[in-house]
Design a protein that fits this description.
Strand content: 25-35%
Subcellular location: Cell membrane
Structural class: alpha+beta
Radius of gyration: 40 Å
Number of strands: 37
Largest sheet: 7 strands, mixed
Number of domains: 4
Keywords: Cell membrane, Membrane, Transmembrane, Transmembrane helix
Transmembrane segments: 516-536, 548-567, 573-597, 609-628, 634-655, 671-692, 698-717
Protein name: TMM8B protein
Family: Belongs to the TMEM8 family.
């Protein structure tokens, strides 16, 4: 055949340590039909400070692959919520082969067409809280690339038609495909008139959606005559691929014919169901009466085989032959993103007759619906059982309904199909099923009622069970509970939702409490973070006593907003917010930086030097507000104002030292008992904040930070400035041979210089 190669790539993204699914990087690819091989080239490299991160440690990178929807991963081995089905996926761990770069290759032969999703993350770290910009962080970047090779012009088989083929000696196989429409109960592939050097040396392989593999359904035509391969309950609305492969070492040309037969269960001439009462045939509850004005015992008039109003049936395999049942559609009602309700006509109560199943279809849109959670709920109306021991079983299958007349065992799986089983009875009248990140397409729910006896399950007689059915799509499981937040995430044009847990809770729905914080621990951490701000009361008292009223107002502002910000910032249920979180955070950060600013400016004692020193206070407030609005967590938001204020203080102290020709502050007690201890306490607080604080010790390390910063302010705040003395008589300045007598009132600025006169000029 003729091959065409397609190439796809994605932009490199920075990987993060795994904490929840919200911290992974998701990549979306689309594999075209007729693809025979897909090769993912997984490129990973390190960066540090804009250059190659040769000194960065090697950290393993885990990549997950899944077709149809994102992978449901659980690297921390946490517990999933109850009634949650976990679809499988394939994981691959990349190791480093070079100091700053590594490449991994992942091949998939005959991949399923459609959407493919890759999820990548780093292993979980210790949760260290690093100050942004303090040092160059090691970044691990991941870039997947996809190369697909697909066949073009694959021969199409038409049902009921014979295709002749002659396989030359240098050819080993021939590939065909046939489209299977809806309501097909069986696909039969047959090889006819096979002639070769050694009989019929052919293998016949059949697979849905993609070309067959070595482990696909296979038949050896040498050992089976006629060479027929059947597929019961095939996937609807999909291509089936037929591979006719020659045995190795067979010489000469092999000629044969291929034909495909499809059993269509929607035609009454092929499988005609018995006429049933109209209300019962549509599985409507008794409370709605009969449809079309017919009583339950009435029968509709006979219809012709070509009548288009005949209900579309589905196949049911049984030993007695094939039978068909109607499929009831659902109405899709979109409320919001990943918030979709599926309503049943004449529902939500559904009648399940004893002699046939009730089947419903739920259609999930491609790409749009695969990022949420499919929820299904069954509730049995016990009063409708009439005292019988009835159990209603439900099978949820993807792309084809599965109902079986085998009453000895209840299963939702076959050799080629896998489904989910639900059951309700008089003892357990409620059953739920949650499927995170479901595959898109048609989901079929088949309900049937059976009675439990000593010999197993048997069909019930004259008992029609009534079931409340609810199906809906939600962003997260139970909205992540009270200890989680449901986040709507986006990767390129694909949306998906995931839970981000807090207060030590984990799991897909934040329901795993193995590491959860107790209520007492949450209350203790909240009280420590809030009450540690009371340490600002002594600096406020010192500032008021020293007549630093502006500084005292700033300290009160900081104490107030820091207290209520930490009361609102708690991850658990001990939370109290007096304002919006963003407002509290901004005021807390602004108060902290302004406290540092006004303290250092007060230490500079600029009033005698700069008569309008209050300009610096106002300028600092405006600049700090601007910086916080740009980036609240940046390192230079703290260091920039602090270093600038320290520079002003150093200039002021140096000027005083030069003018007085004595070190300033002049007393050693001021240095020994105030400045040095205050500086050491402030330095210890900064070191704890920058290098020791982690997510686990945050509540007490940050409380110590509050205590140390407030304590350092009490030490560093200068004493009250002494009142300026009244200027006395100025010393007489002597000139060359003369003693200049200067008017003292003019020197003090008490008289008009224009009318001032010199008292006397004295001769030396």
């Amino acid at each position: 055949g003729l091959f065409v190669t397609d190439y796809f790539t994605r932009t490199p993204r920075k990987l993060s340590p795994f904490r929840s699914f919200a911290s992974i990087e998701l990549f979306h690819f689309h594999i075209p039909e007729d693809t025979v091989i897909a090769v993912w080239n997984l490129i990973t490299f390190k960066e540090q400070g804009g250059t190659f991160g040769d000194q960065c440690p090697d950290r393993s990178i885990t990549v997950y692959f899944r077709s149809g929807a994102p992978s449901v991963i659980n690297p921390l081995h946490t517990h999933f919520p109850r009634d949650t089905a976990v679809p499988g996926s394939f994981a691959l761990t990349l190791t480093w082969t070079l100091p700053n770069r590594t490449t991994g290759v992942f091949n998939v032969t005959s991949p399923l067409p459609g959407d493919w999703f890759l999820a990548a993350h780093l292993p979980k770290d210790e949760g260290k809280i690093s100050v942004k910009g303090l040092y160059e962080e090691c970044q691990y970047l991941f870039q997947p690339q996809l190369i697909v090779q697909r066949l073009v012009n694959i021969a199409v088989l038409y049902p009921g038609h014979v295709t002749e083929q002659s396989m030359a000696p240098h050819n080993r196989s021939c590939l065909y495909k046939v489209f299977v429409p809806s309501y097909t109960s069986r696909v039969l592939v047959e090889v006819l008139r096979c002639r070769g050097a050694e009989g019929c040396p052919l293998w016949l392989r059949v697979r849905a959606k993609a070309p067959p593999l070595h482990n696909s359904t296979t038949l050896d035509c040498r050992e089976h005559t006629p060479c027929q391969l059947a597929q019961d309950l095939p996937f609807w609305q999909h291509w089936y691929y037929v591979l006719v492969e020659k045995h190795p070492g067979v010489p000469g040309t092999v000629s044969f014919q291929v034909t495909v037969q499809l059993t269509d269960c929607s035609r009454p001439s092929l499988a005609r169901p018995p006429f049933l009462p109209s209300s019962a045939s549509m599985n409507m509850p008794h409370s709605f009466g009969s449809a079309g004005g017919l009583a339950l015992g009435d029968s509709p008039p006979p219809t012709s085989p070509n009548d288009t109003k005949h209900p579309v049936p589905i196949p049911v395999t049984s030993h007695a032959g094939e039978r068909c049942w109607p499929v009831r559609p659902t109405l899709r009602n979109e409320l919001d993103t990943f918030s979709v309700h599926f309503y049943i006509f004449f529902g939500p109560n559904v009648s399940v007759p004893p002699d046939r199943p009730a089947v419903f279809v739920i259609n999930l849109l491609p790409v749009l619906d695969s990022g949420g959670v499919l929820n299904l709920e069954l509730r049995l109306n016990v009063s409708s059982l009439c005292g019988e021991n009835v159990t209603v079983f439900g099978c949820l299958n993807h792309e084809v309904p599965l109902t079986s007349s085998d009453n000895t065992s209840v299963t939702c799986e076959t050799e080629s199909l896998a489904g989910f089983l639900l059951s309700v009875n008089a003892t357990a009248s409620l059953s739920r099923l949650r499927i995170p990140y479901p595959q898109t397409g048609s989901w079929y729910l088949s309900l049937r009622s059976l009675c439990a006896t000593e010999h197993g399950f048997e069909p019930c007689t004259n008992v029609t069970a009534e079931v409340y059915l609810r199906a809906y799509l939600s962003p997260c499981i139970n909205d992540c509970g009270i200890y989680g937040q449901c986040k709507l995430l986006r990767t390129n044009n694909y949306l998906y939702a995931a839970c981000e847990c807090k207060a030590g809770w984990n799991g897909w729905g934040c329901t795993d409490n193995s590491e959860a914080f107790s209520y007492g621990f949450q209350l203790l951490s909240t009280l420590l973070l809030c009450l540690s701000n009371v340490m600002f009361v002594p600096p406020v008292a010192i500032a008021v006593r020293s007549h630093y009223l502006l500084e005292a107002a700033v300290y009160i502002f900081t104490m107030f907003f820091s207290t209520f910000y930490h009361a609102c910032d708690q991850p658990g249920i001990v939370v109290f917010c007096i304002m919006e979180y963003d407002v509290l955070q901004f005021c807390d950060f602004l108060g902290s930086l302004m406290s540092v600013w006004v303290t250092v400016i007060a230490m500079a004692r600029l009033q005698p030097i700069v008569k309008q020193a209050s300009v610096l206070y106002l300028l600092g407030a405006m600049l700090l507000s601007m910086a916080l609005q740009m980036d609240r967590h940046g390192l230079w938001n703290l260091l920039g104002p602090s270093l600038f204020a320290l520079g002003i203080m150093a200039v002021a102290w140096t000027a005083r030292t030069i003018r007085r020709r004595h070190c300033y502050p002049p007393t050693w007690k001021r240095w020994a008992f105030y400045l040095c201890p205050g500086a050491l306490i402030a330095a210890a607080a900064v070191l704890l904040y920058a290098f020791v604080e982690t997510e686990e010790n945050y509540f007490y390390i940050h409380s110590i930070w509050h205590l140390l910063i407030a304590g350092s302010v009490g030490f560093l705040l200068p004493p009250r400035a002494k009142p300026s003395r009244r200027l006395g008589p100025l010393p007489r300045r002597k000139g060359c041979g003369y003693q200049l007598c200067v008017n003292e009132q003019e020197e003090l600025g008490l008289v008009d210089p224009a009318v001032a006169s010199i008292n006397s000029i004295c001769t030396s």
